[in-house]
Amino acid sequence: MKVTRRASLVVLLIVLLGGMLFAAGSEYTVVKGDTLWEIAKAYGVDWKEIAELNGITDEFALQVGTVLKIPEAYTEISVMIPNIDHEIPAVICIPNGDGPFPLVVMLHGTGSDKNEAGGGYLLAAPALAKAGIASVRFDFIGNGESTADYINYNFTSAVDDTNIAFAYAASLPRVDGHRAGIMGWSQGGTIALLAAGQNPAYKSVLCWAGAPDLSGVGSLEAYEIAKQNGYYELTFEWRSPLKLGLQWFDEAYGTDVLQVFSNSSAPVLAINGSEDTVVDPVNAQRIVDASRNEKSKVLIIEGADHTFNIFTGDMTAFNQLIEATVDWFSKTL
Q1: What is the pLDDT of residue 11?
Q2: E-assigned strands of 186-257?
Q3: 185-217 b/e with 16+ CB inside 10 Å = b?
Q4: Which of 179, 189, 278, 302 could form a Cys-Cys staple with 184, CB 3.0–4.6 A?
Q5: pTM given for the model
Q6: Domain annotation for the chain: domains and CATH numbers
Q7: CA dihedral sign of residues 141, 261, 214, 303
């Protein structure tokens, strides 16, 4: 059966837990040979939910050309999580159903936000939800919807925000905080490794182009400027500059990320693209070598760059990335 989605989405917004909950749905046009069960399976929902939503009383009498409203397999909650002197903008994606569901904390990279490059996490979170896995993604200090000053972002603040976001999501009724994983892209992978090495609550780890060494982001020359000014201005082609604070440099140069991660007993899947020129793919093996878990492994996606080709229009590599991510957490949580 071929599934085709219409561009229009039915979006329901309701106030929940101090935030906004988005229950998105799509539409499907019945073609010859379709069954309600097959359609439901393709979308990861119960066929009875489709029948109820569309007023279908005879599931064997589908008419070709009928446009069915499809309920989504998840809901998303947009919240602001308090953390002492700032708030953490976050989105929690929870599968529909009774649960409790395992949880994955998703960490973004340098200069990005909770939805990640090319909307990468907008694709990953629903994919996890359809596999019965909840997730929380959030903006680090000074990124996305965060109103805090990026100059205060550093390893310590990032790990702290990570643990606060995890604790918030894990406290929700249909979430099982005892089955928690953590993942990060690029510098988000750095923070994921640090958080896992310091917090045994994370039972599984995954890195998308994880960077155990960030000297490429902040050079020694930039470090010297930060010592003089209190910060170094980091520029990007796709967004406004960010001020890397002196504490970030002190921690980036003074922290053995892999040594910290070696304290974790969780398995790690380190994924890199073979054509990544930002984070050398050899770092995937370095991460696995630092792990104490024999189930840890490396996955190199051939032909993929640092963003797994999400901006090229060819989604082959990114789809492989999503599939590997869902499979990893399904098996380890």
Answers
A1: 28
A2: 202-208, 231-234, 242-245
A3: bbbbbbbbbbbbbbbebbbbbbbbbbbbbbeeb
A4: 189
A5: 0.84
A6: 24-71 (3.10.350.10), 74-332 (3.40.50.1820)
A7: negative
